[in-house]
Amino acid sequence: xxxxxxxxxxxxxxxxxxxxxxxxxxxxxxxxxxxxxxxxxxxxxxxxxxxxxxxxxxxxxxxxxxxxxxxxxxxxxxxxxxxxxxxxxxxxxxxxxxxxxxxxxxxxxxxxxxxxxxxxxxxxxxxxxxxxxxxxxxxxxxxxxxxxxxxxxxxxxxxxxxxxxxxxxxxxxxxxxxxxxxxxxxxxxxxxxxxxxxxxxxxxxxxxxxxxxxxxxxxxxxxxxx
Length: 226
Description:
Layout: E1 2-6, E2 11-15, E3 30-38, E4 44-52, E5 58-65, E6 68-75, E7 78-84, E8 94-100, E9 106-110, E10 113-118, E11 132-134, E12 144-153, H1 159-166, E13 183-187, E14 200-201, E15 211-214, E16 221-222
Antiparallel strand pairs: 1-12, 1-16, 2-11, 2-15, 3-8, 3-12, 4-5, 4-11, 5-6, 6-7, 8-9, 9-10, 12-13, 14-15
């Protein structure tokens, strides 16, 4: 099962949860993973974010920019962009991942393969808060298409581990898999406790970081899966 995003104003709000804050030291590493199926010609499709502009741009955003997979790290009113790969707005399921290690490096993956690495020269900051959102960035830049199996690890996953999670498109049990001790969130987008109904997307990790479906119409769960 997956969840359909209309690319208008619908998104999942997880609230301001500190475990998803990333300042280059606490936690020092993060990995964001998802299955996406992007459609349309939208230039900005947010996959997952934790962002605020209260005291200047702070936070992070994993998205598609002009169709290309992109990771943005904000801090001190500056931004680091890592963008690569082909245009993923092809109405096809893709497994995407971004690994960030503070001031060390950032790497993004498409379908289990590393696409690009960049060495950071500064430390991003999100100390001011901001909500964690799936399918939007501060309620803007909505995703157009379908999203399934969003995962957040509070650690770095390496090449072989990303490939294992990609698993050739087969379902992967993150709760019992590699690096499960660092699993901060796992949202199955219909296949979790929500069982394709209601307005809550349940966190299937042990952290209960459940999300609220916002501005979604009825019948947005679909059997279209990776």
